[in-house]
Each structure stands twice: as C-alpha cells, then as structure tokens.
Amino acid sequence: MSHDAHLRLEHERDSRLTQLQAMQAGDGAGREAEEQVMLAQRDTIERVLKEIEAALARVRDGSYGTCPTCAKPIPVERLEILPYTQFCVPCQRRTA
Hints:
- The chain is mainly alpha-helical and 96 residues long.
- It has one domain: DksA, coiled-coil domain (Four Helix Bundle (Hemerythrin (Met), subunit A), Up-down Bundle).
- The protein is built from four helices and no strands.
- It has helices at 2-25, 32-61, 76-81, 89-95.
- α1 (2-25) runs antiparallel to α2 (32-61).
C-alpha cells in the first residue's frame, strides 16, 4: 500500500505544482477580482501541497493510513479519493 500511496501522492503534488506554474504564468493580466480569485486558489494549492508533503513523510515513517486522533486505519476508499488526508471521516468532522 505504501508504494501505491507514494505514487498517488507524487501525482497529486505534480498536479498542484503544474497548477501553480500555470497561475504564475498568467499573473500579469488580471483585474482586481480575478487577482483575488487567483490568490485564493494559490493559497489553496499551497495548503494542499503542504498536506501532500506531510502525507509523504507519513508514508516514509510508516504512519500513513492511520488516523492520529483515534489510531484506527483510514479506509482505503478514503485514501484513494483523498490520498493526503490525515484523519478518518469521524475525526475529520470533529476537527473541522
């Protein structure tokens, strides 16, 4: 599982980096409202990149796929949809 998780996380990271690069390439031509949207999108992408890097660290240290709050395994289906998630659904709801 950790090899598959590592590959999914690398794909997610590469996708986000590509999005950031595309946004930076188009930075010169925006109106104020468009710039605000771009800044919000950039913040979101950067946050997700940090979450992906943290998930890669969990893969390396062997804690990937285990919820740190309840210590139960995170369902594989959830990890397939959101490979960088740190929490199971019930614990995520409590932290939100």
